[in-house]
Amino acid sequence: MKRVYLDNASTTALRPEVIQEMTKVLTEEYGNPSSTHSLGRSAKNILELSRKSIAKNLNATAQEIIFTSCGTEANNWILRSAVKDLKVKRIITSKIEHHAVLHTALALEKEYGIQVDYVSIKPNGEIDITDLVELLSQEKKTLVSLMHVNNETGTVLDLERIGRICQEHNVLFHSDTVQSIGKATIDLQAIPVDFIVASAHKFHGPKGVGFAFIRKNSGLQSLFFGGEQEKGLRAGTEALHQIAGMAKALEFSYNNLETDREHITELRNYLITQLEIEFPAFEINGTADGFYTVLNVLMPFSADKTAMILFHLDMKGIAVSRGSACQSGSIKPSHVLAEMLSNEDLKKPSLRISFSHFNTKEDIDMLIEALKTI
Ligand code: PLP
After folding, report:
1. Is the pLDDT confidence value at 27 over 80?
2. Catalytic residue among 319, 326, 331, 368
3. With a 6 A CB cut-off, is 70 part of the ligand 1 pocket?
4. Is pTM, for the whole model, over 0.85?
């Protein structure tokens, strides 16, 4: 059976070149980057070349890139150290953030008694900037944490605009850029953001590795106690093969950005056209001009189809995800869609279809054919 993978916001397939690079490092570069002998120095060289390459792609300096085990760790670290070490007393975030941010903010509220405020969300899933400015009128040491591209709906935040607003109000700005790194140009000299995070498995790199961009002189401190790795900001022997694979994946992503974006945008538009033809009553959750890698749609099926739709598609070899997570038989609505849809619509099946450059028009045709049998 031909498999159709349209769940690239969850994770992506590795590029063959990444596997090659990782295999080479695993086989030949087994030295510890902290060792002073030649094997260690060679490993250290790979580590620093990877850091430089990542920094160059984002127009940052190498020392501002700190390797972590994943995007979740990077988000946890930044928020926690901002409260613990930078004495942030308030986090302004939104209810549509990834749980790596939302649950961390809640934990910090409980542990440190900080204030957590949520910016209002417009019905199309965008942040209400007027509300953000209003929240910023309160005088309190604040960190704003708002994601760049929403992982469920693909709604995009204007990073530069929000960065300027934060700068004008003299507050820190963190953005979860896990869904946009490698898929959008991010110029860290031009965007006034203090912290961003990335996860390699979202851009055709390996799972279990990510990085944080920590702007110079931010004062952020380590979460872990241990060795002096990552300039003392992240103790633990570096996963060299993962890091080298991530750097290679990012390099390929940015080298192919324009062609991949064009190809994926064409597929996304083709899908919208086919849905308009076959299911004219479907609706887009978010905006039609959202980020090119994601399309979240409310299908015009009855609510009783909701529980089975993913299973049904999976039986036909199609991997997509739903706006709602099915947990042990009960249907828990997505916390993101819950902020945007009516209770009635929330019960109906929404699908998150997310693309990569590996997808083809045939994949979309197969999805449409399968949806016709629901
Ligand atoms: N933030 C966003 C927006 C995500 O989509 C994800 C992954 O699902 C994460 C954070 C977590 O990244 P990781 O899987 O590397 O922990």
Report:
1. yes
2. 326
3. yes
4. yes
Kindly calculate the radius of gyration of the chain based on its CA atoms and give it in whole angstroms.
21
Question: What is the average pLDDT score of the chain?
Answer: 95
Ramachandran quadrant class, 301 (left: phi over 0; alpha: psi -120 to 50; beta: rest): beta
* Residue 179 beta carbon below 6 angstroms from any ligand 1 atom: yes
215 alpha carbon – ligand 1 mean position (Å): 21
- pLDDT of the residue at 331: 64
| Domain final position from 229, 255, 281 | 255
User: How close is the Cα of 139 to the center of ligand 1, in Å?
Assistant: 31
- C-alpha 72 – ligand 1 centre gap (Å): 6
For ligand 1, atom 8: residue with the closest CA: 10
CATH code for the domain of 160: 3.40.640.10
Question: Is there a single domain that holds both residue 204 and residue 263?
Answer: no
In this structure, the number of other CB atoms found within 10 A of the CB of residue 272 comes to 16
Percent helix, strand, coil in the chain, to 5, is 40, 15, 40
| 136-141 average pLDDT score | 93
Residues 219, 176 within the same domain? yes
274's tokens = 């086919």
